[in-house]
Write a structure and sequence with these properties.
The chain has 110 residues and is an all-alpha fold. The protein has one domain. It is 65% helix and 0% strand. It is built from five helices and no strands. The chain is globular. This is Tetratricopeptide repeat protein.
């Protein structure tokens, strides 16, 4: 987990550059996975939501890896995190992907 935290320390000050969001969101996702293994769902939710925020932004690079990472963030938030631990802004993004995004097709992500 230390290497992902170190990556965030270096990259987050540069987070105004969308082309780095793939690396930043990957670090957030990996930290969330480690926290889930440790049963720390609250902090895992925060990292998953940060990744979701970056990956769902229209300025984010669209490629195979980022689309799969977006899909995994949504799955983890929906299946591994209790709803009461998901911040409201993040919950709205999840609702958009489940109910409001007519172009969303999970099968196209894989």
């Amino acid at each position: 987990m230390d290497k992902y935290k170190e990556a965030l320390e270096v990259l987050e000050p540069l987070s105004d550059r969308p082309w780095l969001w793939g690396l930043i969101s990957k670090s957030h996702f990996e930290i969330a996975c480690i926290l889930l293994k440790k049963k720390d769902k609250k902090n895992a939710a925060e990292h998953l939501c940060e990744a979701l925020k970056m990956l769902s932004d229209k300025r984010a690079p669209q490629n195979f890896i980022s689309r799969n990472l977006l899909f995994l963030c949504i799955l983890y938030l929906d299946g591994a995190i209790p709803e009461e631990l998901i911040p409201e802004e993040c919950e709205k993004k999840l609702e958009f992907y489940f109910y409001g995004n007519t172009s969303w097709a999970g099968h196209n992500l894989l």
